[in-house]
Request: fold
Amino acid sequence: MITDWYSVTIEALQDLWQGFLNFIPALIGAIVVFVIGWFISIGVGKLVTEILKKLRFNRIFEKGSWKEALERAEFKVDAAGFIGAIMKWILVIVFLMAAVEILGLDEFAGFLNSVLGYLPNVVVAAFIFVTAVIIADLLEKVVRAAVESIRVGYGHLVGVIVKWSIWIFAILAILMQLKVAPDLVLTMFTGFIAVLVISAGIAFGLGGKEVAGEIVRDLYKKLKG
Reply:
């Protein structure tokens, strides 16, 4: 009986040791892949950041009240560094997923694959944000200049309304792209459109006719003169 226990214990320990020896090459390979990938990811991230800085990408974000508010909160705005960090972590996850697959951890690899599949949504959301920064600032200035050129007044107010309307659209689009409570965001988006249309209709019905008439008369005088 004792001999049988001894044999079973020795056999189990031998199997454990053999399994550990078989696991060592995979572990070393996974570590090598991840370490090399880590340095490659850091290098690519820095390269992307430097390229964007050379292209003066940060100048797009140098204007706007939101930037001043973030700086007052001691939050440094570095758009080029943010894009570079995204690129770095995308590559880190790719190399980590390769290392995990070498180790045979299929469930963890599946989780990383789902995270990697979600990252394009983050990239698209960042693109929407950048586009909103450019368009909101540009249209605010264009609309303000257009309204003030016909000397109707309220140019600043109209410009601000246009800018924040674009920002609200952009924020809702970003939330939908990131799949953050999509049903709620869709309801908010529909409600915002309805409120915007109703408000415009009420404003035009109550006092907008006089403003519209004044704009038309002024344009007619300019064209005639």
Summary: The domain at 119-225 is CATH 1.10.287 (Helix Hairpins). The chain has two domains: 1-104, 119-225.
